[in-house]
Request: fold
Amino acid sequence: MKQSISVLKDITEANSLLADNLRAGFSQRNLLVLNIIASPGAGKTSLLERTIEMLDGELRFSIIEGDPATSIDAERIAAIGVPVPVVQINTQGGCHLEARMIQKAVEQLEMADADVVVIENVGNLICPTGWDLGEDIKVVVASLPEGDDKPLKYPMAFVTAQAAVINKIDLEPYIRAKTTVMRENALTINPDLAVFEVSCITGQGIDEWLDWIREQLAKKRTTSK
Amino acid sequence: MHEMTVTQAMLNMALEHANGRRITDIYLQAGRMSYVVPESVESFFQYLSEGTQAEGAKLHFEIMPVEMTCMDCDQQVDLSEWADDRPHVIMQKAFVRGCECGSKNLRVTGGLSFGLVSIDVDESE
Reply:
């Protein structure tokens, strides 16, 4: 005889519960946590390098690097002039990070002195959008040469993010994509997005991005008190 | 390619609720914007369920439409004229046109998740 058992649960529930626990733990330590999502080569690591360097002496970072197989990004972070604790997660080919991976990374990550934890997700604009990592804020990075229609082609990344960083704007004179169009498309998909136009190479626009991080950290600290 | 993780999570959830009984059917709801491909879930399920109480269970997918809500008037946006379009095309069109009230402040409020609705278990074994 068959019996029906009602479940009515989201498949990612276990992940979400774990992420909520992680978020509570981060908040207790007064940490601002960013989850950076972008396609491969958009400039996630470059943005991190710039951010850490320019906020040196003011804000301290701890970094979790997600990558399918290599530790190239973690080595890049370790090579900048500022000493920053970094833990590398290799997903063994997996297309996104999950909360259980962050839980493991956090056990090894030095966070005692940190103000901000940045999780660099696996380069992918689809899969990471569905997995909460316990972050406060999702940031999507999209570089201009990828095409100014990126927000329309990968709406979920922009719908679930609170901030969008348009990178490589210094290349605009050489390509067809337009920064203004990309910004407009991003805001069409998500009117609440904070949009930043930057070049990690020339440093253009980075100051606005840094101000925003300061603001988010201040906001987090007033609410978690 | 995240279907393997998703399928494993779904299988774990189903087995937990079956509590040792044999599972014959699994009823799922997949949002059109969930980025979950049913065919892919099915093939991973065959492989992952092998040797478990869910081996051989039939998967039933209900595909859930994209839903959008206006943040200004709180009404669900009528997307019916674009029902046959691909989900991200529906979103694009809706975001560009906006709500009947004139607002363009829309949010995607449905069709994002992948849910386990219920399972059928065989009581006779």
The helical segments of chain A are 13-28, 44-54, 72-79, 99-108, 150-153, 155-159, 179-189, 206-223. DSSP finds eight helices and eight strands in chain A.
